[in-house]
Amino acid sequence: MEWEDSFVPDYDEMGIAHSDTTKVRGAAVQRKGNPCPLCPARFTHVRRHVLQEHLPWYAAPEMACWHCGHQEGQKSFTRKHLLQHHPEDTNGFGDGLVIKYLELMHGFLWAITKHLGMGTLDSLVTRAAEMCTSVPSSTELPLSEEVLMGRFCKEILQKKHTPSVNPLVCVCSLLHWCPLSSLFSQLSPGDQEALFNLEDYIDARGRHIV
To answer: What value does the mean pLDDT take over residues 135-153?
Structure first.
């Protein structure tokens, strides 16, 4: 099991709405599995659950359908979805969608910043670093994630930085689901629901793209 599936939140679960965990899709029974940082249920594959049920559909771009805004938990499921529903274009996420993804995530991060009453994205990094301490220091990012974080630095932040989840020292690190879900958990359930459906494109100059 990858460390990401045993990620345990190191903070007070301020935004969690405690409900009947048996009603959560895919939840493990009898307290087996690992706790979700955003709801009271437990799962064998926490990452898949968080990406599908709590974060916007574009948060994991390679597992998203960019035709209908649908998020799967695995790339193989995304390919099956594309073959079944979009046989005319089964290529999925690629270079032509990178800027769109970066601008969507830029907008999402700014929305979290504002909902938390913070003034800058750097302050968001500081908050995440204080909360997300269970990530092993030796963690190596998948090449695809490292490339996208690097592109975020170059295209959006317009600076060069080596992507890292631990330590969290750059805004680009917030693209990773662990710090992202840690920050998201600090929002009220109402704010979480609103931002779950957010599609706000913000470019490098801070301009909202329609």
So the answer is: 80
